Amino acid sequence: MKITFLIHNVYGIGGTIRTTLNLAGALADRHEVTVVSLLRHRARPRFAVDPRVTVVPLVDIRAEAADATDPLHRQPAEVFPAAEGRYKQYSRLTDRRAEEYLRDCDADVVIGTRPGINVYLSRFGSPRALRIAQEHLTHDTHNKKLRAQLARHYRALDAVVTTTEADATVYRARMRLPGVRILAIPNGVPEPDVAPVDGTAKVIAAAGRLVRAKRFDLLIEAFSTVAAKHPDWSLRLYGTGADRERLQRLIDDQDLGGRATLMGVVSPIETAFTQASIVASASDAESFGMTIVEAMRCGVPVVATDCPLGPAEIIEDGVDGLLVPMNDEHALVAALLDLIADPANRRRMGEAALASARRFDPAALSLTYDELFTGLAATRRARAWQRGRAAWRARAGRALPGLRR
User: Which domains does the chain have, with CATH numbers?
Assistant: First the structure.
């Protein structure tokens, strides 16, 4: 079977890129897999790509590339939805290249990995292929205008796959998609090529984009209290983003220089997590929680805010990690202090985390995708009938008021 993934920019850094490459590599055990990158800004991907997976860039935006001076590159996209967060990075050139590629694509399955790209898949993808939209954000993350556009385009697809059951439930309730299967399949995280931690390092780690929603500021403030009680512990924050300068000022204001450090980007992140005994996540929202699983796969217990929608589907509170209320600095401090004060419990939770996280192995999740492909192919005719019946009812409903008049 030929499987094609459509991704924003496989040459960058981010959770969607990591999990797409993880799944692509696992599926390559049995299938011919291609990853199509709508954009390309550097020579090689930052993350390792399985040699069996073919990478195809569509628009090369490097300064020396011909695409960078193409007149269409300077014209705003007309198909990619303007309400999508990445809209300004798209153009009529990406519209055209996406249409050309999908028109000629002979894949049996095509999987889009962000909303605007899923619109491309709906508009240009061959109905002969199974067309699947992955949602790595959440339904409620999208603004009202974008949700309306997605509802219109997603009706032409075969399935919508979210990363959590909670988000799948929201889609089923709020986006009526007859004939489209809506289900949750979590992101895959492979077993790291590192030994599990022993829980003795006096380090708390956190990782992610340095943006306000990740609430690294809350974590720094909580660590200020922790550091006063345990001056031998340190906090390491991994990642980059728009909030970096503000977070550095907060570290300086809290007089945590040398104790709390912005470490920049480290890849793979597991090499950083193995130098810690606790990983913390203070986010206001998570579509899944890749760093939580990555830490657990290293045998590190995670303290996470119980935010929508991912952490509670990953962590069993009190068993393989701890969940605390959102925006509750005192609860976050208490959870960190509990793990610091009890090394034996920290090790037990780390061992439980290591065992629990095996359910996110990409090889196992790729089999779930195989089952999805088989099921969608077997129900194609029935689902087309459901879609047609719903469309007929909608047309009849619109016509009925005129007939009554």
Answer: 2-188+369-392 (3.40.50.2000), 203-358 (3.40.50.2000)
